[in-house]
Amino acid sequence: MIHEIKQLMYVNTTHGLGIALFLIDYGVQANTIWVVANEKDGIIRHYDSNQITLSINSTIDFNVQNK
C-alpha cells in the first residue's frame, strides 16, 4: 500500500533534514518505507521507518533539531 502524505512533514534522515512525500507499507513482515525529498540536495531517497525521526511540526509545537 502507498500513502501520499498531504501535509508538510519534516523528518531527520541520515542525509539531513527532508520532507516526507510517501509511505510504502509492505505488510507486517517488513518496515514501512518513507520516501523523502532531502532539503539540502533535493534528492529523493527511501528510508526504513527506523532510520528517520520527526523533526518539525508547527501545528502541535513540535521542534526537534537534527542530531
Q: What features would you describe in this structure?
A:
- This protein is mostly beta strands.
- The protein has one domain (2-57).
- It has no helices and seven strands.
- It has strands at 2-4, 10-13, 16-24, 33-38, 44-48, 53-57, 62-63.
- Strands 1, 2, 3, 4, 5, 6 and 7 form a seven-stranded antiparallel β-sheet that branches.
Record the SSE blueprint.
Layout (H helix, E strand, L loop, with lengths): L1 E3 L5 E4 L2 E9 L8 E6 L5 E5 L4 E5 L4 E2 L4
Antiparallel strand pairs: 1-3, 2-3, 2-6, 3-4, 4-5, 6-7
Kindly summarize this structure in a few lines.
By secondary structure, the protein is an all-beta fold.
Keywords:
single chain, mainly beta, 7-stranded antiparallel β-sheet, 0% helix
Low-confidence stretches: none
Largest sheet: 7 strands, antiparallel
Number of domains: 1
Approximate helicity band: under 10%
Count of strand segments: 7
First-last Cα distance: 30 Å
Number of DSSP helices?
A: 0
Radius of gyration: 12 Å
Shape descriptor? globular
Percent of residues in beta strands = over 45%
N-to-C SSE string, H for helix and E for strand: EEEEEEE
The structure class reads: mainly beta
Mean pLDDT: 86
